Structure formats: structure tokens, C-alpha cells
Amino acid sequence: MPLTWRKGMRSAIVAACTTLALAMAGVLPAGPAQAAAPPDISLANVKAHLTQLQSIATANGGNRAHGRPGYLASANYVRDQLNAAGFTTTLQSFTYNGATGYNVIADWPGGDPNDILMIGAHLDSVTAGPGINDNGSGSASILETALEVSRQALQPAKHLRFAWWGAEELGLRGSQFYVNNLPAAERARIKGYLNFDMVGSPNAGYFVYDGDNSDGTGAGPGPAGSAALERTIQDYFTSIGVPTRGTDFDGRSDYGPFIAVGIPAGGTFTGAEGIKSSAQATLWGGTAGQAFDVCYHRSCDTTANINDTALNRNADAIAYAVWTIATAVPPVVVWQDTFETATGWTVNPGGTDTATLGLWERGDPEATTSSGAKQLGTTVSGTNDLVTGRLAGAAAGDYDLDGGVTSIQSPPITLPTGTLNLSFSWYLAHGSNASSADYLRVRVVGSTTTTVLNQAGAATNRNGAWGSTTASLNAFAGQTVRILIDAADASGASLVEAGVDDVRITR
Ligand code: PHI
Ligand code: ZN
């Protein structure tokens, strides 16, 4: 970044950053949380780290910039604290602009190595000043959070990895180097990245990265899972009664390289050179018509350039997110059927079915097409699924569902108590000769009956495509239930096909 800000520069940078290709694939984080109680992070401790970073800058020409001695001293300060607290640390070096830069990477031993939550902040300043808000604030907040993980001897379900990035101010150089050098297998293990860049701005706003693109501005949504990270952070601010607003994934901080490879991201931001509007001043207090951080990238970004309230709230939000996400108990599969083997499903359990052809069966389905895919020859997992007549026949209308209703019932399933979810994959396909009387329906039958899927046909062409449905089974906790699936071609001869696969109940 140039040292002086010129009119129009931000929009130019935003445009450039927004054109970065953002891979949108990703893996959702584990489901419902049952987290360990998040701690209150000590503001005094966070500020003590800022005092140290200020002293480092003061002793090294007034900055902590890439390639300057104040940067390496900052990296060593952070790393020493983490080593003493039991983290496994790495000083990852890279070269940029003819100077050596460093990322500090700190792994907390334990947790699922295939389910990593990363938390990062850039540790470099610009050359103009000590960079205490930008980004001593994020660096100190995640450092104190990591030290609290150690004090509590936290045993999270997820593996925790903290990172302090070098050369962010020169274009995300450290985080880009880290992501570029991750082996593909290791990249796939990182299920989420939380970024904290400027979290103590003197004229603070409370911004949360807009993972779901609910604001509809700038870049699109983050990779799948980003919305859940945004919600978790928002939950904390809601709990303390502080309203938040979204901030676009414009690519101006170290989440950029992560979302570009499909890793879900989230985080907070209290504002930089942008001007606080009067609406924002009404919402949060502070001064309308003034920058969130008047000392952004200036020599006055010192320990005097910190809003303690904003810093305190954000440090606590970081700990809340880390504890909530990393200690969430991953859902346990209570029961599942992938239909690879016979487990005791019963066709026509009530003896009242009227279908004459295409009755439910378990098997290896043959594909049919008629104005597009109808019966799917592929399953969601393995070779077999539940299908309305697995054979294709000579024409799509052979072995499709005809004549009325076909039903199939699972064996009895004894549910434990607790928070239960049912999920399954399904499709309904029909020709334009079908009608709204045709359907695919899935019900759960216990002491009461709940319909979890009721997909009606229509007099239009609908191609077969696997989708999935999730429903709560909390109302059936502790009961023995059966899953009842029926499909109907109820409006005279028309082309109707249906399939179900991977029925799973998790707690
Ligand atoms: N976060 C700094 C530096 C920066 C600008 C980094 C643009 C990346 C990009 I793309 C800033 O916003 O000024
Ligand atoms: Zn900056």
C-alpha cells in the first residue's frame, strides 16, 4: 500500500480485490454445538501485549514493518509467549521485495487433525507507524485468546491453529505464501478461518464479515460454512446487546487467500479510513463524519489510538467464537441406512398399496431418460438405493411407478434422548404428463406422525436430481419409530420415478 491515501483509491483496490477468483466450494462445519463455556478475555492482558508491541516499534525506528527489525522482534515476542504456554510454533519465512518476512504459526496440541479451525491476524505494520490498532489489536487479541486456551488446558474437538501473518500491508504476502505452500491434503483439513484485522478502532464500528452476502454488496458470499461463522460471531454481539453490520469480503485482509481456495472464513473489523455515517454514530456512538480510525496507516497509530470498549468486546467475541466452534461436539450417527445391504425394510406394510408397477425396492438402479434424467442410475453412496422399480426397461415408461401408491417402511429404530436430526437424500422425477396428485412423501411414525418431506408432482417435466432434507426428530427422542416412505402416480398413467438414499439420524 502507498503511504498516502488518494481519493478513489479504496474503490480501485476494492474493485481489484473483488475480481480475485473466489472458489466457493467448501465443507460445512460440524453441526449443533454443545460448547464449553467461553471465557472473558482480560482487556488488561490484551493491552499489555499492545504496550509490548509499542515498545518494540519505539526501539526499532517507530515501526514493525516487513523487512524491518521491529517486525522480527514482534514475531519473536508472540512466539516466545506461545512456546511458554505449550503451543507448537513454527516461524515460517518467505521472501518479498528482497526482504525476509515471517509468519508465526502456533498449533495447540490435540483435537481432530482432520478438522482444523484457524485464527489469524497480521502482525506487520506499515512503515509510517507502530501499527497498534492496525494490527496490534487483532494480533494481541488472538494472542491472549491462545494463552487463555492454554490456561484452561482446553481440549477442543477441533484442532486449533493460530497464525500471525507477515507483510499483509504489502498485499497479503504472508497469508498468501502460507496458503500457496499448504499441501492439498492439509488445505482440505482446514474447515474454517477466522480473521481479525483492526479490532480496536478509536471511532469504532462493529462489523462482521458478510459470509452469507446478506448485504448484497461487493464480493459474493464466502465459501459454504462462512455464513455459519458469521452467525456465531453475531450471536456473541447479540448476547451483549451490541448491534453489528456486515463488511464485505473485499479481499483487503488475510482471509482473501483462504476464501480463494474454498475455505470458509469469518471475523470482525472495527473500521479503517472509512467515514462513520450519522446512522452508524446513532447505532454505536462515536463521531459521525470522522474516520473509524483517523490514525490509519499513520505514525499516530500508537497505544493512544485504541478504543478499549471495542477492543474488549472484540477480544471476547474472538474467544466466544473459538470456544463455540472448536468445542462443539460433532454429531454422532445414531442410525443410518445406505441401502447397501438388507436391513429389514417392508414394502406395502399397511397392505393398502395400489401401485401396479414400479414398487419400492432396494437395488442398483438403472438410469432412464425422457426429456432429461428421470430414474437416476447413480446413487449418493455405494451401489444401491431405494428406488421405484430399479430396472430401466426399453422405454422410460417401463418400470416407472404406475397405478397408485407404493410404500416402504423402515425397521423399528430406537432413538436415544437428546437433540436428534434426520437427514436423507431423495429425488422425484416426472414427465409433463404427471400431476399434482403424484408425490414423494417421507414420514416418521412414533407415538405421533410427522411428515418430513411432501414433494408433490406437477404437469411439468421435472428431471431426477439428488437433493437432501434435514428435519429435527427431537419430538421422537427416546421413542421407537419407523420411517415410512411413499410415492404415488395417482393421476392415471404418467412417468413418475423416485429414489431415496443415505437415511441418517444423528445426535
Ligand atoms: N489491509 C491493508 C492492505 C491491503 C490492501 C491488503 C489491499 C490487500 C489488499 I487486495 C489495507 O486495506 O489498506
Ligand atoms: Zn493496514
UniProtKB/TrEMBL annotation:
Gene Ontology MF, one: metalloexopeptidase activity
Endpoints of the signal sequence: 1-35
CC annotations in GO: membrane
PROSITE patterns on file: MAM_2
Domain of life: Bacteria
SUPFAM superfamilies per the UniProt record, alphabetical: Concanavalin A-like lectins/glucanases, Zn-dependent exopeptidases
Keyword match Transport: no
UniProt keyword Iron-sulfur, yes or no: no
Keyword terms of this UniProt record: Aminopeptidase, Hydrolase, Metal-binding, Protease, Signal, Zinc
Family affiliation: Belongs to the peptidase M28 family. M28A subfamily.
Protein name: Aminopeptidase S
Organism: Nonomuraea jiangxiensis
